[in-house]
Structures are given as C-alpha cells and as structure tokens.
Design brief:
Layout (H helix, E strand, L loop, with lengths): L1 E6 L4 H11 L4 E7 L28 H5 L4 E4 L6 H10 L3 E4 L11 H5 L13 E3 L2 H9 L3 E3 L3 H15 L7 E7 L14 H4 L4 E4 L6 H12 L5 E7 L6 E8 L6 H12 L5 E3 L21 E8 L4 E8 L3 H16 L16
Parallel strand pairs: 1-2, 1-3, 3-4, 4-6, 5-6, 7-9, 11-12
Antiparallel strand pairs: 7-10, 8-9, 10-13, 12-13
Helix pairs in contact: 1-10, 5-10, 6-8, 6-9
The structure holds NADP nicotinamide-adenine-dinucleotide phosphate.
The site of NADP nicotinamide-adenine-dinucleotide phosphate has 28 residues, from helix 1 and helix 10.
Length: 350
C-alpha cells in the first residue's frame, strides 16, 4: 500500500484522480490540497464522493505534502507544475504530472507551443510520457510520469498504428470535438451555459498546442519525423472527445492491412476497443459510449474516391484523457496490476 497526495484536487482532472484512487486497492490517498477550499470536506466540492471519503482539503504546500507521500499527483494548470516539481523531486518523491509541463522532450517546444521558456529543462528526461500503449516498457522503470493531453492522446490512439506500420506518409489532419470539461472548472464567458449550450464552436482552427506531443509521439513510433495539423471544436457535451484523423495515400489501402496495423499496435491492450459495425446506432466510436470509463474506442474507413485513410477515436477526456491514463501509468510504474481501479464499464445511456 502506497500513500498518494493530490495537488489541485478541487479541479476536474484532480477530482477524477481522487475518485479513481479512492477505489484503488494498493493506494491510500492521504492528502488532497486546495487553496480555495482549504479546511472544507472533499464532498463539498465533489459531491459525487459523499460517503466515499472523510478527507478535508489541506492548505499544505506541495513540498510538505511530498514529505508525507510516495507519489504526488499534480493536477494544476500548465506552467504551475514546473514551479513546484523540482523541489518535490529533490525530496525523492515520485510525480505523476497531469499538466503539460514535462510532456515534451525538446525544451525548445515550450516557447514555440506554450509561449514560455522551460525553467527546468534538465528534468524533462526524468519523465516518461504516460501512454501505456506506446511506453509500457519504459513505464516499468519510470520514476516520474508526464500524463498526456486529452486531445493529444485521443488523436495519437487513432494515428499511431498507421505511423508504426509506415503507412503515415504526409501530414496528418485531425478534427477534434471536445466536451466543456476539457477546459477545466474555472468559469469564463465562453463557458457560461447561455453562450456554450447548443453551440459548435471552433476554438482552434490550427496551432493547437497538443500538436507538439502528437508529433513527438507519432515520430517516436514511426522512427521518422511526423507532421500534424488539428482543428479543435468545443461541442454541446460535458465529457468526451471525438477525433477524426485522416491522411492521404498514394495507393489504396486494403482493410486487411489496416487490421494488421491495429493488431500490431493494440493486440492484448486492456483498454482499447474496436467499434466498427455495419448496422446499429453506434457503428463508429462515440464519446457517449466511453463516458465514465478508461476505454479508447477506435474505428476506421478508407475513402477510395479521394485515397484518404480515416481513423476515428473516442475517449472520456477526464479518464482515458487524464486521470485514468495517469493511474494506469502509475500502476505500471509501481508494479501494481495495470487495470487496478480502472475496469469500470462505461455508462449507457448518459
Ligand atoms: N480537463 C481535462 O480534460 C484535462 C485532461 C488532461 C489534462 N488536464 C490537465 O490537468 C490539469 C488540471 O486541469 P483541470 O481541467 O482539472 O483544471 P481545473 O478544473 O481548473 O483545476 C485546476 C486546479 O488546480 C488548482 N490551481 C489553480 N491554480 C493553481 C496554482 N497556481 N497553483 C496550484 N494549484 C492551482 C486549483 O485548485 P485550488 O485553487 O482549489 O487550489 C484547481 O482546482 C491541467 O494542467 C490540465 O491541462 C486536464
């Protein structure tokens, strides 16, 4: 049994990490911090957890928390984690960071994609990108984990099999549709119900910062430099991401070759499902049927008319896109059963 602390646990990603870890057999969540809610019971913020914990939010500094636990989950905004992580690592406490601050291997990508210079570039190599389906072997000996971005991992899941099989030659074109929880719990005019409900809002036609990690990971699996472009839309749902990713090919790709690529990448993966059917309502992946779970659903089609390969992937952004992936990676790092705490079936209907 290990002790875990969560910083930023009043937010959405930290709240989901807490929910999952409270039901994890090898973990005791001993400290959860919040500046805003210090002294208040957790269920005052995450009412869904009433009856599951008596924990109160602490105003302890991350450094004090680090001295009491084996693993720290950081669920704070990007740019904040890098301020506290160096001191935590000095104490020898392991970090599972859900922000973007340690995901990118090349420090020069931070000014390019995030607009700030990385202040601890030497620590980037001390983090393993927390995507078990690509980095399982490295995670077994990892000390710290950088958990992927939500739109990034959803896109990577759809494209990685093609990259690995050498079929992705040319720029990958990604369309993502995300639910409102992807932008966190802080409020703005754009997240106001009257402004958000019933809209399909393109918030980043190009230049989404998750491109950096998508290109990093697709290049890693293919062994050559990959390029991607993404258009991101916020749609009328709370949870979930649908990524429709495509690329053009010189020659027709037959279905058997795609199945071969999928199997080479995802054979025996506990959280990857193929959703492709000739009939029924949910013939392709849909965020609605992964909600509440750590599954990623994947489907594909080939457009013979335009020689375009189309891959469709869906996740729950707060679970496979955040807390679930973080716990799955921690399980591997700590030598626990990989699926511990994570094997819930999705909700339906929702
Ligand atoms: N939402 C998603 O789908 C998702 C998916 C993948 C990754 N992530 C990443 O997870 C992290 C948290 O995202 P979120 O969506 O949960 O955001 P959120 O709901 O806004 O929560 C962020 C939490 O961080 C704390 N916080 C804010 N400013 C802080 C600071 N300066 N120092 C320390 N703590 C601070 C806040 O807690 P107190 O003010 O109460 O202390 C807040 O509860 C972000 O880095 C995000 O990019 C989110």
């Amino acid at each position: 049994m290990i002790k875990v602390g969560i910083v930023g646990s009043s937010g959405y990603a930290g709240g989901e990490a807490l929910r999952i870890l409270l039901q994890h057999r090898d973990v005791e969540v001993s400290v959860v911090t919040s500046k805003k809610y210090a002294g208040k019971q957790v269920f005052k913020v995450h009412t869904n957890l009433k009856g599951f914990t008596d924990l109160k939010y602490s105003d302890k500094s991350p450094l004090d928390v680090a001295s009491e636990v084996d693993v720290m989950f950081l669920a704070v905004p990007h740019g904040e984690s890098v301020k506290i992580t160096p001191k935590i690592l000095e104490q020898g406490t392991r970090v599972v960071d859900m922000s973007a601050d340690f995901r990118l291997k090349n420090p020069e990508d931070y000014p390019k994609w995030y607009g700030w210079e990385h202040t601890a570039p030497d620590l980037l190599s001390k983090f393993t990108y927390g995507l078990a389906e690509i980095h399982r072997e490295e995670l077994k000996s990892a000390k710290n984990i950088a958990s992927p971005g939500c739109t990034a991992c959803c896109s990577i899941y759809g494209l990685a099999p093609f990259a690995k099989a050498g079929m992705l030659n040319g720029t990958a074109i990604i369309d993502v549709k995300t639910g409102s929880s992807a932008s966190g719990s802080s409020v703005s005019l754009a997240s106001n119900f009257s402004e958000h409900a019933n809209s399909v809002r393109i918030y980043k036609p190009w230049g989404h910062r998750h491109i950096a990690e998508i290109e990093q990971e697709l290049s890693y699996v293919s062994g050559k430099k990959q390029k991607a472009t993404m258009s991101a839309h916020s749609v009328n749902m709370v949870r979930g991401i649908l990524a429709t990713s495509s690329f053009f090919t010189e020659e027709e790709i037959v279905e058997a070759k795609v199945w071969g690529a999928m199997r080479a990448m995802y054979k025996d993966e506990p959280f990857v499902r193929y959703i492709m059917d000739k009939s029924g309502v949910f013939r392709y992946p849909d965020p609605k049927i992964v909600a509440g779970s750590n599954f990623v659903d994947i489907g594909f089609e080939y457009d013979k008319h335009a020689n375009r390969m189309i891959s469709i992937s869906a996740i729950d952004n707060l679970i496979k896109g955040a807390a679930g992936n973080a716990v799955q990676s921690m399980n591997i790092m700590m030598g626990f059963k990989e699926t511990e705490g994570l094997m819930q079936a999705p909700f339906h209907p929702m």
